[in-house]
Design brief:
With 254 residues, this protein is of the alpha/beta class. The protein has nine helices and 14 strands. It has helices at residues 33-41, 60-63, 66-69, 81-91, 148-153, 168-173, 178-185, 193-203, 223-234, and strands spanning 3-8, 15-19, 24-27, 52-54, 77-80, 97-100, 106-108, 111-117, 126-132, 135-140, 159-163, 210-214, 240-242, 252-253. The strands form two sheets. It has a seven-stranded mixed beta sheet with strand order 6-5-4-3-2-1-14. Strands 7-8-9-10-11-12-13 form a seven-stranded mixed beta sheet.
């Protein structure tokens, strides 16, 4: 498959497939190896075809699948130094790493990758823009606050996977402890529906072809609510979908 597809998105695991005529990669590996294999096969891709895994940060819902993918299948892992250290601490052993530097572009099999800093509660988390033959895909989840840097990197995307995690009123009303609520609502937590919608109004231009709303909270959000916020804000007839947790999301072909 040439294009991209969310394989899973949410607090129980995150992974996105990206394929070109030259290579096939994953962005994060936060679901089991078995689930990754099954979801890839549902879009006509074999796990053995995956050339690398780009990792945004070291939280378990982004790296747990590395236990199988990196060690049993020997798929190389691309990460910055601090994330690599976190992966090693979490898994207790070291995958085959290729290290990149946050803020510096690099090329992988014809994909120009630009990792940029985001605000989240771990060391050196990143979002990515990926350019393939003039097409620009932005993948940016797990950010508590959309900084000027985030805005600048997500300008002029053709395709976008962006966090729309929660509705603040639902966070306040849920039964979770206060420390959880403070984390989610803080500047190093997760992006609300309103903040996502506002960010989209600031970065979208005529290039945009499709948006996935990602990392929705199962407890403190609803797909219809997230979609309504975005539709009302952007006021354009742009293809829009929610990236689900338990199944693959909408496939986008290049």
């Amino acid at each position: 498959m040439e294009g991209y597809c969310p394989l899973a998105s949410g607090s129980k695991g995150n992974s996105t497939y990206l394929g070109t005529h030259k290579t096939k990669i994953l962005i994060d590996a936060g679901i089991s190896g078995k689930a990754t294999k099954e979801r890839l096969e549902s879009i006509g891709v074999q796990l053995e075809e995956i050339d690398a895994i780009l990792v945004t940060h070291d939280h378990a819902d982004h790296i747990i699948g590395l236990k199988t993918l990196a060690f049993r299948y020997k798929i190389p892992v691309l990460a910055n130094t601090e994330t690599a250290k976190g992966i090693y601490r979490s898994l207790g052993k070291c995958p085959e790493f290729t290290l990149f530097t946050t803020g510096e572009k690099f090329s992988f099999n014809g994909i120009e990758v630009h990792p940029f800093s985001i605000q989240h509660d771990t060391v050196d988390p990143v979002g990515f823009t990926l350019q393939i033959d003039g097409i620009k895909l932005g993948v940016c989840t797990d950010l508590g606050y959309p900084t000027t840097l985030v805005r600048s990197h997500l300008q002029s995307c053709d395709y976008l996977v962006l966090e729309s995690n929660h509705e603040p009123s639902m966070v306040h009303a849920c039964a979770r402890p206060m420390i959880y609520k403070q984390r989610v609502l803080g500047r190093s937590g997760h992006l609300s529906n309103e903040s996502c919608a506002q960010l989209l109004t600031e970065i979208l231009d005529e290039k945009i072809k499709h948006i996935h709303l990602a990392h929705l909270s199962e407890e403190c959000n609803a797909p219809e609510t997230a979609l309504q916020w975005t539709r009302s804000a952007i006021g354009k007839d742009i293809p829009l979908a929610v990236a689900p947790q338990k199944e693959i999301g909408e496939r986008v072909f290049f």
